[in-house]
Design brief:
The chain is mainly beta. The protein has 2 helices and 17 strands. The chain has one domain. Strands 1, 4, 5, 6, 7, 8, 12, 13, 14 and 17 form a 10-stranded mixed β-sheet that branches. It has a 5-stranded antiparallel β-sheet with strand order 9-10-11-15-16, with no helix packed on it. The longest helix is centred in the N-terminal third of the chain and has 17 residues. It is globular and about 45 Å long.
Length: 250
């Protein structure tokens, strides 16, 4: 690599030129900073075959055939386990917090989900819980038949081989993802440019089928193995109202 050294005179001249250009440029007010933002990574799994059809906008989760009754029912029973990489809500810091979203999207989630629950890690403060509750209302803007909150001990780990999350040591819930064998040349497949619910952007759906995805708490427990799973890092923030006479906003 070539190295270049600027003399003090040349450096001074360049600096003066930059300052002059900045002075001649029209002034532009800085965009107002939002009151909250979230960058989080999710270990996610659901009862649908891979890949979950819910993400393609049809509004109908996959059909499941009951071998006993021979009935066909549409549902998507899911576990989304978050770890916040960095985030804040006004002056409340959210870096490192963990929480768990579980539920059933029912047969036609475009009309609303069957039920959902938001489980906070016991280490979270009331202020952090209130902040995450507001953010998840933006992330998953659904009408629920019923919705509840709770708390528990959440463990969250991930590496190149897969990911694992437990709620109360597995008694409350568990999601285990494994690196798939169907990736090209041993790579883990990633779906890019696909919208994730209400997020502003995401880094791609990293496909990893589950070896188990279970929610064992409450009155509607479920458990599946070998169905859809992925990891994804999402970005979500509030969007201040645009200035008068301009367009934009959330």
């Amino acid at each position: 690599m070539k190295r270049f050294t600027l003399s003090l005179a040349v450096l001074s001249a360049l600096t003066m030129a930059v300052v002059a250009l900045a002075a001649d440029a029209p002034s532009k007010a800085a965009a107002p900073a939002g009151e909250w933002s979230l960058d989080g990574t999710i270990i996610e799994a659901c009862s649908c075959p891979m890949f979950c059809t819910c993400y393609f906008g049809a509004g109908h989760p996959a059909a499941h055939h009951d071998m006993t009754t021979h009935a066909e029912e549409h549902f998507c029973r899911f576990n989304n386990v978050y770890r916040v990489n960095h985030g804040h809500f006004k002056n409340v810091k959210l870096d490192g917090v963990k929480f768990w979203v579980a539920g059933d999207l029912g047969g036609e989630f475009a009309k609303g989900g069957e039920w959902g629950t938001l489980v906070f890690d016991k280490a979270m403060t009331k202020e952090q819980r209130d902040a995450i509750g507001t953010m998840m209302g933006k992330m998953y803007p659904l009408k629920w038949g019923s919705f509840s909150t709770g708390e528990g001990d959440i463990a969250w780990t991930a590496d190149a081989k897969g990911a694992h999350a437990t709620l109360d040591g597995g008694k409350g819930g568990e999601v285990a993802l494994e690196k798939p064998a169907f990736g090209n040349q041993g790579k883990t497949p990633v779906i890019k440019d696909l919208q994730y619910w209400g997020s502003d952007s995401n880094d791609g759906f990293v496909l990893m089928p589950n070896s188990v995805e279970a929610f064992r708490g409450g009155d509607k427990p479920f458990e599946y193995k070998g169905t859809n799973g992925f990891m994804i890092t999402v970005h979500l923030a509030d969007h201040p109202a645009p200035a008068e006479g301009t367009k934009g906003g959330f």
